[in-house]
Amino acid sequence: MTAAVLLEAVDYSYPDGTRALHEITLSVAKGSRVGVVGPNGAGKTTLLLVLAGLYQPIRGRIFVGESSREGTAVDSRFSVLFQDPDDQVIFPRVLDDVAFGLRIERCEEERAQRKAREMLRTIGIEALEHRHPARLSGGEKRLVALAGALVTAPRFLLLDEPSSGLDPRARRRIIEFLRSRKETLIVATHDLELVLELCPRTVLLDEGRIVADGATSEIMQNGPLLTRHGLEIPYSLRREHIHPIMPDDPHHRRHHEEGIPHTHGA
Ligand SMILES: Nc1ncnc2c1ncn2[C@@H]1O[C@H](COP(=O)(O)OP(=O)(O)O)[C@@H](O)[C@H]1O
Ligand SMILES: [Mg+2]
Asked: Residues with Cβ within 5 Å of ion ligand 2?
């Protein structure tokens, strides 16, 4: 396995002293897709921002490719989709917002606009090109922010709650789109169904520590583990969903018609 990024015993504390990450050791293979899950306050967002080089660990080391990362310079190999798109979408026109990363890289203006337009089309939001980001819905803003994160062709794409605020169609489009990408992908989310579809590997965080790291298929079926850490088995893996009661069972049918979820032995 080629470790594209490696964290070794990384600790992080916020300036007010809140310890958000403890002894995080994590190796992510090139081109892999990893879901980072855990309850509120587990440290998911902090982990992404440390990975991106936006926060400096107080202890431990980070290697990107062969070399240890030093100093505080922004690491342009990483793009982050922030949890709150308002932290990301800043220009008064969508196209300029998406082109911003390219302008920072001193890309020629005409080319920057062309690439930004292409990215809007790829994500299926070309109709938003001339809109004012502040007047978009939360989901639309998130898609604009995603276009901005991808347009610089980063090697690592770090997504913080990418599906939050998206309607089912936009969520589906994003999942299919991300599946087709070659970037190394790390997704922090509460949306376990998204992780099931997108990420073969899952890292479970709680209170700033990695409490499980393994195959998504196994972690997502481990009810006691998930419950201990504030999560639950995704709906699509639950038994009553996989083995529905026969539809001609009158008890089931009544519940079904009334939209009441059926429970065994009820
Ligand atoms: N700017 C901050 N200053 C102080 N503490 C913070 C700050 N941001 C987050 N934290 C704390 O760090 C811990 C991890 O937070 P976070 O990484 O946002 O968790 P998650 O994304 O899993 O919900 C929590 O205890 C949170 O309260
Ligand atoms: Mg978070």
From this structure: 44-45, 83
